[in-house]
Amino acid sequence: MKNLYLKLAEVKREVGKVSKNSKNPHFKNTYADLNALIDAVEPILLEKGLLMLQPIQNGNVTTIIIDCENNESVESSISLPALQDPQKLGSAITYFRRYTLQSLLSLQAEDDDANKASRKDTLSDERFTNALQAIADGKATKESLINNFTLTANQLAQL
Fold first, then answer.
1. Is the pTM of the predicted complex or chain greater than 0.90?
2. What domain range includes position 148?
């Protein structure tokens, strides 16, 4: 029987990075919302025999992961602020559920847009030959080719 920490290590390895799927217009940043985080994590937890609960206990939002085989558990919690506005309190609860889960599993969020923008396509020999022709025809520049594609050493030498 595996202990809780071995199972959590497997979960963490399988989850990897969680994709950021929401935008905060106020701060102009992106983040993985609670639903995306739970969608990425919970099926893997359940597959490993782990149950995730997120109760509010004594003014704290708590994320608890319980090993159903041996009743071991780990938890992370954050104290709720004293808010009178139910909408602000609901937002804080959602926010804290996301952060306690992300913190408990030490998950990283991946910025899909930034990662996609930073990845450069590679060029097949045929595409590279076409790009060289476009440069010769004045329709492209060497700089644009270098800046927009990952070139092999052989392709760079031909430039």
1. no
2. 120-158
DSSP state of 110: E
- Could you please report the per-residue DSSP string of 20-71? P-EEETTTTEEE--HHHHHHHHHHHHHHTTEEEE--EETTEEEEEEEETTT-
Q: Do 101 and 130 sit in the same domain of this protein? A: no
Sign of the CA dihedral running 48, 105, 12, 24:
positive
Strand, coil or helix: 124 = coil
Q: Are residues 17 and 38 in the same domain?
A: yes
**Residue 111 pLDDT class (50, 70, 90 cuts):** very low
Per-residue pLDDT tens for 28-48?
555 557 777 888 889 999 999
